[in-house]
């Protein structure tokens, strides 16, 4: 299928991020005639799809989604660390990420509003009428979902802006999520079963996000407006996607992120339900491209025998995994850990090879010789348990490659690590070797917004919250069995070292990966292994935290974690328990983001600016 060519120039000129709705008068004036034509509608909807790239385009991709959670804390690159540390810089005046997010979501909503208003007339009786109208509803519902997840209640705007508008009042979170559901249900009715082009939304995308929206409304943060049928609806729409023959889980977890070439096999997997489209056409990459590849890698190019290259990425070192992120996996049986994290590198610089010295050479004749050659393993991260006493400092000093050990016994007999803010196992899901140069920041790989494994977990959570644990475990175990090592499957050398497993062991771990109700039954050994935070004592509580753990194992770093913890009212509990940098400052107010001050300063009520008290009333509590 032909890939959509997005109207980036069209978008940037006509629908660039604006302050709320204030600059959209010119947009409406300049484009009304064009949007009264079939080509104008095509341009409008194609341009609106470009908006999905926003979620992968810059630092807001991770700062609003993975910082300040149990999965990741800041690394050595601390440019947005206040989102992780919840310090005073995270306030209504924050303009680098919160304001662009707010402005862009509303810009894309206005595009959708224009389409919803124009399509019934312009495309009346045309074959593309339902599809384009469904796409417009999908785009509006998606963007309002993103807003309500972050901010709670926001203004609801359903008509295109055609003149200067200043009068805006927040709707409640309940009203916003109801609008999301209404729009996505319209999209689900109108969209085709299969998209005509790669990257367009189909019924399955609408159903996935409908399931997500219903589950969001059924979650603890939204208890005051949860409806009794929400869990049934979440399960219903999730199962419609799961039972759709157009979508299947990839055979191997590794397949999903095995990016071999632009628009390659991993970007056409039937597991992918919806993705923001990128490629290596430099004229269409826009200002940013997909930049998420920059934010997870740890520093390697400064080490002897190494230099920065395309394969290993450019290291902005923003996101460092927490101990929870490393330990939530049973690494000996769950292949997702070593398929999600980079734990070894190969030497690529003959000019800086380290050499044996008299202090560390295994034999005198090796003094002055290279410790390894180009192409040899040059860096190994040993991800052992925190109670592992097999290693001592000499294992680091006397090894041929650079060795980073999570826990070793130092010369004083104490537990120690040589992991640092800048050296740690890096999430490998976003590596992009198809950029033009090693320092190129604009990435080319598609950004996954919905994949089938998450749909399985939505269904599992819905059934488990209803008390049907057997049904929930069917969905959980479908993805856990996929995650198991298969008979004869090779493991990485660092797997054997870290997990203390005999070299060459390649047995199946499918049976070990199957979860039972014991995983969330108080007092069982299986529940003890799940790292539940203090105070999580009932089976109902444990189930929610079990699903959060399983979502971490499957969806680690996939830019949804903060929302998961916020919606379940577990953000404070889990950030406090597992993120040492977040723990001192996180407060109840942080379960929502502050409404941007730029919005509050710009709007009016009854023709006048808001007073200080009125602005405070429109702001989220505690800011």
Automatic annotation (TrEMBL):
Cellular component aspect of the GO annotation: cell outer membrane
Keyword list, A-Z: Cell outer membrane, Membrane, Signal
Record domain RagB/SusD: where: 270-602
Family: Belongs to the SusD family.
Pfam family, one: SusD_RagB
Signal peptide location: 1-19
Record localization: Cell outer membrane
Protein known as: Putative outer membrane starch-binding protein
SusD-like N-terminal domain location: 20-215
């Amino acid at each position: 299928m032909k890939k959509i060519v997005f109207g980036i120039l069209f978008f940037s000129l006509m629908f660039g991020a604006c302050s709320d709705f204030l600059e959209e008068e010119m947009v409406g004036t300049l484009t009304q005639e064009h949007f009264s034509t079939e080509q104008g509608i095509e341009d409008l909807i194609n341009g609106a799809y470009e908006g999905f790239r926003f979620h992968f385009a810059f630092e807001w991709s991770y700062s609003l989604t993975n910082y300040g959670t149990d999965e990741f804390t800041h690394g050595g690159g601390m440019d947005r660390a206040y989102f992780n540390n919840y310090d005073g810089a995270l306030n209504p005046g924050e303009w680098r990420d919160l304001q662009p997010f707010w402005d862009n979501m509303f810009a894309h909503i206005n595009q959708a509003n224009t389409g919803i208003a124009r399509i019934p007339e312009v495309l009346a009786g045309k074959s593309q009428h339902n599809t384009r109208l469904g796409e417009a509803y999908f785009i509006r519902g998606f963007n309002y979902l993103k807003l309500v997840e972050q901010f709670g209640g926001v203004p609801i705007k359903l008509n295109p802006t055609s003149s200067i508008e200043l009068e805006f009042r927040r709707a409640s979170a309940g009203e916003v999520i109801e609008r999301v559901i209404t729009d996505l249900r319209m999209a689900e009715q109108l969209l085709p079963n299969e998209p005509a082009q790669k990257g367009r939304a189909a019924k399955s995308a609408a159903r996935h996000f409908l399931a997500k929206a219903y589950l969001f409304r059924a979650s603890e943060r939204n208890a005051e407006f949860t409806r009794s049928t929400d869990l049934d609806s979440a399960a219903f729409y999730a199962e419609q996607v799961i039972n759709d023959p157009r979508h299947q889980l990839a055979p191997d977890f590794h397949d999903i992120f095995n990016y071999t070439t632009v628009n390659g096999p991993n970007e056409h997997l039937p597991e992918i339900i919806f993705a923001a489209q990128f490629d290596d056409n430099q004229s269409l990459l826009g200002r940013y491209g997909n930049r998420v590849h920059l934010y997870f890698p740890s520093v390697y190019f400064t080490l002897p025998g190494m230099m920065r290259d395309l394969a290993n990425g450019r290291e902005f070192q923003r996101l460092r995994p927490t101990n929870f992120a490393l330990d939530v996996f049973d690494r000996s049986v769950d292949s997702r850990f070593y398929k999600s994290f980079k734990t070894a590198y190969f030497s690529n610089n003959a000019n800086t090879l380290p050499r044996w010295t008299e202090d560390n050479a295994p034999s005198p004749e090796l003094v002055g010789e290279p410790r390894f050659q180009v192409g040899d393993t040059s860096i190994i991260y040993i991800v052992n348990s925190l109670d592992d006493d097999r290693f001592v400092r000499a294992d680091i000093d006397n090894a041929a490659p650079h060795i980073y050990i999570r826990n070793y016994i130092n010369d004083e007999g104490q537990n120690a690590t040589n992991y640092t803010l800048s050296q740690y196992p890096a999430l490998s899901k976003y590596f992009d070797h198809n950029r033009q140069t090693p320092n190129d920041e604009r990435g080319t790989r598609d950004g996954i917004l919905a994949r089938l494994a998450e749909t399985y977990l939505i269904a599992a959570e819905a059934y488990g919250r209803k008390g049907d644990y057997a049904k929930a475990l069917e969905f959980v175990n479908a993805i856990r069995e996929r995650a198991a090592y298969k008979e004869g499957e090779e493991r990485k050398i660092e797997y054997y070292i870290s997990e203390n497993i005999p070299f060459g062991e390649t047995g199946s771990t499918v049976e070990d990966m199957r979860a039972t109700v014991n995983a969330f039954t108080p007092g069982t050994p299986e529940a003890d292994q799940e790292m539940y935070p203090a105070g999580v004592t009932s089976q109902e509580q444990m189930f929610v935290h079990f699903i959060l753990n399983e979502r971490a194992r499957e969806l680690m770093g996939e830019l949804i974690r903060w929302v998961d913890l916020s919606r379940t009212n577990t953000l404070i509990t889990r950030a406090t328990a597992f993120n040492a940098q977040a723990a001192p400052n996180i407060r109840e107010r942080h379960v929502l983001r502050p409404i941007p001050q730029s919005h509050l300063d710009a709007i009016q009520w009854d023709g006048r600016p808001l007073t200080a008290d009125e602005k405070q009333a429109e702001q989220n509590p505690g800011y």
